[in-house]
Every structure is written in C-alpha cells, then in structure tokens.
Amino acid sequence: MTVPTEDQALENSARLLERAELELTNLPLMEVTPVAGNPRNGRPYRRLCTQQRALGLPCWICGHDIDPGLDARDPWSWTLDHAVPLSRGGSLLDPANARSAHRRCNSARGNRSTTATVERTSRRW
Ligand SMILES: [Zn+2]
User: Fold this and answer.
1) What's the topology of domain 43-125?
2) I want to staple 8 with a disulfide (CB 3.0 to 4.6 A). Which of 2, 4, 48, 57 is the partner?
3) What distance in angstroms lies between residue 91's CA and the mean position of ligand 1's atoms?
4) What are 86-120's pLDDT values in tens digits?
C-alpha cells in the first residue's frame, strides 16, 4: 500500500488547494476600508467583541488593565485580539481565540515588530 491510489492523489491535491484558499481568505483585513461582506462588520463579530470586553480582562500582551472608558482611537483603548492570528488560520469568531488587548499592544504585535517594544514601554506603568 505504498503507492497512492488515484483517489488519494486526488484528495491530496484537493487538500493543497483548500489550504491555499484558506491562506487567501485569512489575509489580514484592512480595518480602514470596510468592504461589504467583511466578517468584522458582522453581528457575530460585534457580539464576540461585546462579550470579550464585558469580561473586563487585562491586556493579554502586556498584562495591564484596560480602561473601558477610553476613546476607541486612544492607543490604550480596548481591542479584540486573537491568540492565533487570523493570518495563521486563527478563527475570527471563536471565543476561545479571542483576547483582550490594548490597541497599541495589538497593533505592535500585528506588524512585524517584536514584543520587545511593548515590554520596554510597559515598564513606565
Ligand atoms: Zn497592553
């Protein structure tokens, strides 16, 4: 049974295709330009945000509390982050993948800069 059957070969290529599609659909979404069909604008996503925010958890990146009263544009305001980044196949809507984070911590982690920046500035607290 070492030679793959035709079915297995087909299944393998189907799986490869599936993975390529997954990577495409999981590309980071541009937050500045909401597109129709963007799941981040959907009700399930908003509900997840509300639920996660209501937990009142500290930032999972730097460990400091998050002031819920801050303006959404404030770098220290609350944002929904994902334990497994969406770009790596993490689920957008799975509560188990949801984390509370400061806006600045979230975006510092989101781009390619390391957590070293976050750790250094968080010492000021
Ligand atoms: Zn933080």
Assistant:
1) DNA Binding (I), subunit A (1.10.30)
2) 4
3) 21
4) 889 999 999 999 999 999 999 987 654 444 444 45
